[in-house]
Structures are given as C-alpha cells and as structure tokens.
From TrEMBL:
Its EC number is 2.6.1.96. Pfam families: Aminotran_3 (PF00202). This is 4-aminobutyrate--pyruvate transaminase. It is an enzyme of class 2 (transferase). Belongs to the class-III pyridoxal-phosphate-dependent aminotransferase family.
Length: 460
C-alpha cells in the first residue's frame, strides 16, 4: 500500500501537522507527500523503497549529490572543533577568512568583500541594504527603488518576494512593497516580435527599462537585479548582447547592477558564475545553494570594493554596520562550503558541466525533432528547459487549464524521474556530478514520459 494511504504512516501524520512550502494544501491532503528517506549520488529513495533520479538536484542545490562523504566529514570535523560561533562584534574564524578569500578570488570582484548569511533571500536583501548605504554615503539618499524583471524569482521573504516578477508570489500577500518595480523579461521565444532581430529586440528591452527609470525618476532608483539565466522563471537565456546593453542604461543613471547567482553560481551554467556565461558585470553578487551543495544553509554576498568603502564611510562616526544574522558565518556552513569548492576545483566542474550539458541538450534536441509538442529546448551548462506547446509552428501554448506541464511531472514521477515544470516548461538542473549514464537515464525517462503525455493528449 502506498505510504500516503497507510494509517499512522509518516505521510498521514505529516498532512495533519506540517505546513509545506509552495504546496497546494488540498492536493497534499488528497495525495499525501512524497516521503524521502535516503539519497545517494543523483538518486533519492522514498519510504516505499522506490528510487527517483532527481533531475532538479532537489531545489537546484544538491550539486554534489544527495550524500557526500567529504562534505559529511568536513561538517563532522567542524562540529567536533567548534559547533557555533558568529561574526558579529569583531569576531571571525579561520574558515570565514578562507571562504571570503576564496569567493573574492573566484568571482573576480576586485578589492571585494564577502558577507555571509543563511539563505538566498537574505543574500538578496543584504545586497539591497548595501545599495542603500552606498547611495546614501554618496549624497544620494533618495535612490531607494529597485528594479527587478518580470518572471524573476528572488526569494520568499517580504523583500525577496517583492523582487519576484511572478504573480503567485504576490497575490496573497499584497506585494510587491512600494518601490519594487519590474521591467520586461528578455525572453526571445515569447517576447521577440515577428520581423524583429535580436539587436532590435534588445534595444526594445533597454528602451522599456529606460522609460521606467525616467518615469520613476532616476534619482529614486538604487539598483537593478537579475539572474544571469532565469531559473524558476522558466529557464530563460537572454540574447547575447542583453546584459552589455542593459548595463549601459544602468551606468547612465548611476544604478547598481546586482546578480542573483543563487542558482547560476558554482558551475551550473558552464562557467564558475552565470555572469561569465552571459557577459554581466555586476557590482554585487548573491550566492547560495551550490555554495554548500545545499548540504548546509549558507549564503553569501560578494561586493565590489566601492560598496565596502561606503559601509566604512557610513560607520566612520563610530556606529556599527547594523545588519547581521545569527548564523552569518556559521562555522559548519563555512567548512562545508570550503570543502564543496575544493571538490568543484578537483573535478574541474566547469569542464564536466560543459561536457554533460552538451550530452543532455543533445538528447533533448533529438527528442524535439520527433515530438509534436516540444516548442523550444533552451538553457546552458546543466540547466535546461523544454517548453511544450500546442502548435510548434505558431508557438501557441496549451490552454492553461490543461496543466500539461504538471501532467508531465506526474508521469515522470511515476517513471522515477523528478524534474520541475514551470507552467508548460519542463525544468532540468541535475546535480553537477551527473555522469554519462545518469544523463542518458534522464533522457530515456524524459522520452518515455513525453510519449505517454503525447498519447494522453491524443497527438501520437
Ligand atoms: C534565483 C533564486 N534567488 C533566490 C532564491 C531564494 O533562496 P532561499 O530560498 O534560500 O531564500 C532562490 C530559491 O530558489 C532562487 O532560485
């Protein structure tokens, strides 16, 4: 009997007492949760003993798989040496210094400083507070507003959610907060007009941004935030010149450029950071997830030297930088992150991701040739999306009520594959340690599930 139906099972008890993130409560009550018992490599096992290849690395984060002995040893060693300390009031630890040095070096942020936090949302909020300090110190305290983009996901705290450009993150909560604005998403497949080439499309996106800045007042805008490649918004790769052109507009109006690298960092896009894949030169970067392979909740901001200079100047009168989280620089998180980075370096994560990504996208592009419902395959590195459409020629989407993407997710799940639909785009971001056999398993299970979906839709 399915765990969800067994009396007194974890699934039954869970439904009674546990409020889940991003979960439909009615669906949960009717179907019960997936009770995950164990993980090994790129697979997880549920409480009925069924194995799944998790092609989303959990939540884009288990880059080194679901168990890793080296990360476990690094955590255990740190726990037995110093299980908690903090970085407030002039305190530090050797590993805080080492990780900060490593992050400044890897990101190439000249004269930069690293700040530690616990979650991606906190890292994004920290960047915004730093942007406010920066402008205030430079005599521009009215520069407070932040421009994010439609379709963006930047977190779930009140500011994180305000940055999101997704209505489901706003509607129950009366968000976004005032001063959190959104500009057009660079989405060539859906956004480019007929007859428009890439240069004209990018020029239009820049014009949209500039119009927003001018109408709000350039002296009110502090920062622009973007993921190099959209993750939760539907795995969207911007046009090649997008960031270079957008940055011209930001410079013109003295607006800081923030990069949310929470998914894109640490090799995911086929470079150490997504900014390098798309030619973005941010003033600050937010890192999380792959920083510790998700094995410990730790995040970081790396900011250019000028930003730190502002913090320094702001506090020159003797105050403190009034910001910090209890677990900013938790020693176990620092140890796990340092070990994760050591593993990335040893495995040459960039080369590995490029090779496995080429294999995965090769499979998906082959599948697109024979499937009547694959409109586009897009992505980079080991981050891929397959957009399903009703009509490949016109790009007409399926009616939302059909919930085609969700149907695929359910079929794939039955077939032992976890991916994640974003509307009708199927998302893949497997652990970065995938080998050829794992990539082939993802492709085989995707094909099998897609054929079943096509049959269900009556197109095969
Ligand atoms: C791009 C991006 N930014 C920010 C966040 C928020 O991170 P957290 O859930 O750790 O607060 C996420 C989480 O998925 C994300 O994908």
């Amino acid at each position: 009997m399915n765990e969800a139906l067994r009396p007194n099972s974890i699934a039954k008890r869970d439904v009674a007492v546990h409020l889940h993130s991003q979960t439909n409560p009615k669906y949960l009550a009717e179907h019960g949760p997936l009770v995950v018992s164990e993980g090994s490599g790129v697979h997880i096992t549920d409480s009925d003993g069924k194995a799944y290849l998790d092609a989303m690395a959990g939540l884009w984060c288990a880059t080194l798989g679901f168990t890793n002995e080296r990360l476990a040893a690094a955590a255990s060693e740190q726990y037995s040496k110093l299980g908690f300390y903090h970085t407030f009031f002039n305190r530090t630890m050797d590993k805080a210094t080492e990780l900060a040095e490593k992050l400044v070096d890897l990101t190439g942020m000249a004269g930069g400083k690293a700040y530690f936090a616990t979650s991606g949302s906190e890292a994004n909020e920290t960047m915004i507070k730093l942007a406010w300090v920066y402008h205030t110190v430079r005599g521009k305290p009215t520069k407070r507003k932040v421009i994010a983009r439609e379709r963006a996901f930047h977190g779930s705290t009140i500011v994180g959610a305000s940055l999101c450009g997704l209505s489901f993150m706003h509607r129950e909560f009366g968000l976004p907060l005032p001063g959190f604005l959104h500009t057009s998403a660079p989405f060539p497949y859906r956004g480019m007009r007929e007859g428009e080439d890439e240069a004209a499309y990018v020029a239009r996106l820049c014009a949209d941004l500039e119009r927003l800045i001018v109408s709000e007042g350039p002296d009110t805008i502090a920062a622009f935030i973007a993921e190099p490649i959209y993750a939760g918004g539907g795995i969207i790769v911007p046009p090649e010149t997008y960031f270079a052109e957008i940055q011209k507009v930001l410079k013109k109006y003295d607006i800081l450029a923030l990069s949310d690298e929470i998914v894109c960092g640490f090799g995911r896009t086929g470079n150490w950071f997504g900014k390098d894949t798309v030619g973005y030169e941010p003033d600050m970067m937010a890192l999380a997830k792959g920083l510790s392979s998700g094995h410990f909740p730790i995040s970081a901001v790396v900011a250019k030297g000028e930003i730190y200079d502002a913090v320094y100047a702001f506090n020159e009168a003797g105050g403190n930088f009034g910001h910090g989280f209890t677990n900013s620089g938790h020693p176990v998180g620092l140890a796990v992150a340092l070990e994760a980075i050591a593993i990335y370096e040893e495995m040459d994560v960039v080369d590995h991701v490029r090779r496995m990504g080429a294999r995965l996208s090769g499979h998906f592009n082959e599948l697109a040739k024979t499937s009547p419902i694959i409109g586009e395959v897009r992505g980079a590195g080991l981050m891929w999306g397959i957009e399903l459409v009703e009509d490949k020629d016109t790009r007409a989407p399926f009616a939302p009520d059909l919930k085609v993407g969700l149907s695929f997710d359910h079929i794939a799940y039955e077939n032992g594959l976890i991916c994640r639909c974003m509307d009708d785009t199927l998302g893949y971001a497997p652990p970065l340690i995938v080998g050829e056999a794992d990539v082939d398993e993802i492709a085989e299970k995707t094909e099998k599930s897609l054929r079943a979906l096509e049959k269900q839709l009556g197109v095969r």
